[in-house]
Amino acid sequence: MDFKNKVVLVTGASSGIGRATAIAFAKEGAKVIINFRSDSNGAKEALEKCNKHSKDNIVLQADVSDVNDVSEMLDKIKKQFGSLDILVNNAGIFDESDSPTNIEAFDNIYKNNFLSSVIVTKYVLEIMKEGRIVNVSSIHGRLGHGRPTAIAYSAFKAAFENYTKNLAKEVAPKILVNAIAPGRVNTPQWGSPDKKEQEELGRAHLIKRMIQPEEIADSIVFLAKSDVICGEVLTVDGGMSLVTLG
Ligand SMILES: NC(=O)c1ccc[n+]([C@@H]2O[C@H](COP(=O)([O-])OP(=O)(O)OC[C@H]3O[C@@H](n4cnc5c(N)ncnc54)[C@H](OP(=O)(O)O)[C@@H]3O)[C@@H](O)[C@H]2O)c1
Asked: For the chain, what are the domain ranges?
């Protein structure tokens, strides 16, 4: 797929992977819709960077876990662009209180890491005739050995993978749906680790460093470009799944 003048919605594009993805699509000539929930400065910075590469980029605030917010956002997109070519379901959270017994954390993570993408996709499918959907999952949705301090996060990312495959079956061949499963990416999701902490976190990978958000963005663009990858989950984890197998 050639992205010139294509319309791309990236959810959670005020920071980290989403912001890098918005910029990567702008570099390809796409018109980018930068969605954010609370970080208006981050969204503005992302817009300024996108505007260096392509035209007609906009910022739209919406809590993607809220049906009304999403419905309004898609109305605005329809009015301004008519339709949408690419959706990147990237918005997500990491809840430090995630634990096997914390029901509130499960609910919060379910809404913000899974249901939110289901809601956005529902409204996007009303205006997307042909195109691509890329879901940002996580290697934690795939690791067989688990991580109890990220139990809800892992469970709902695993659900997201399954959802990706079933959705791909439903909407192909007009729309190709895929997902990406990153390892540890150096974004604000990890707080602000200093150099030493980054090295420590990077040791979980065979590549012995953290992954940069731009490297995940490149893989998302790769998936969106393909005319033949359909219902796939692309692992981009620097070899993390092999390291932790011992
Ligand atoms: N970093 C990693 O190591 C890693 C690894 C694997 C997968 N991932 C996944 O990658 C995705 C992006 O994470 P990141 O690391 O780039 O984190 P990040 O830097 O914290 O960015 C998260 C983004 O999601 C947005 N967001 C969260 N909840 C939202 C909601 N309900 N509505 C709208 N926007 C919302 C945030 O917007 P505001 O700040 O404006 O509220 C922000 O733009 C997530 O799905 C995460 O699970 C990350």
From this structure: 7-243
